[in-house]
Amino acid sequence: MKVNIQAVNFNVDRKLVDFVNDRLAKVEKFYDKVISVDVFLKLENSSDKENKTAEMKLLVPGDEMVVKKTCKTFEEGVDLGADALERLVVKFKEKQKL
Question: How far apart are CA 78 and CA 95, in angstroms?
Answer without folding.
Answer: 25
